[in-house]
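Morning, I've got a small favour to ask if you have a moment. I owe you a coffee for this, so here goes:
>
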Amino acid sequence: MGTVLFVSPGATIPGALSLLSHATSAVATTAEAITRMDTVDVTVVDGRDDLSWARAVTTTLRGARANVAILLLVPPGGVPLIGREWGFTDFVADTSEPAEFDARIRLLLRSAGDAQILAFGPIRVDEAAYLATLSGEPLDLTYTEFELLRYLMANPGRVLTREVLLSQVWGYDYYGGTRTVDVHVRRLRAKLGQFDWYVGTVRNVGYRFTQTRKAM
């Protein structure tokens, strides 16, 4: 069982969530949520009536606490409109059964417990702190760039196609093309500077995280 904070303009906990065994409380504003985040395991943001409001909340919470677990509650028709750049960790439709809510929350609790540190050469990714560093200095990465680097480092040497990266980093609900993978890889490499060779290209296939630099 975990502790859950529900963030909603009405501060009213939905029925499916109230039926679960988790200790759940509610707040109505982003400011209140920020003061409470450190005392709960999962933060659920209500996007049922206003997705724009929900997006502003999730991005603000993610900026305030990089490692917070955020579950976004959305109407079924809103699923195509949301994106990973909003900063949520996972999402669930408001029509889901209580068992689905419980499964999503427990998955977030388990993921937090399994967080680890990935390190290769000067590059280090701390999943718990949601922090990436290069030679000890923080890397200024967007949410998607962080997730891309994290996934590549979690699978060193494995050739990852653009389609696999899209599904694992952007999510199966992402409707953009594979071109976006190339764009984000270029941006990530630019921030890695002289160590950009760690993200290697496999021609006509995809990318892989490599620990051996090719001879010039």
User: Anything to note?
Assistant: The first helix runs from residue 15 to 18. The helical segments are 15-18, 30-36, 51-64, 98-113, 143-154, 162-170, 179-192. The radius of gyration is 18 Å.
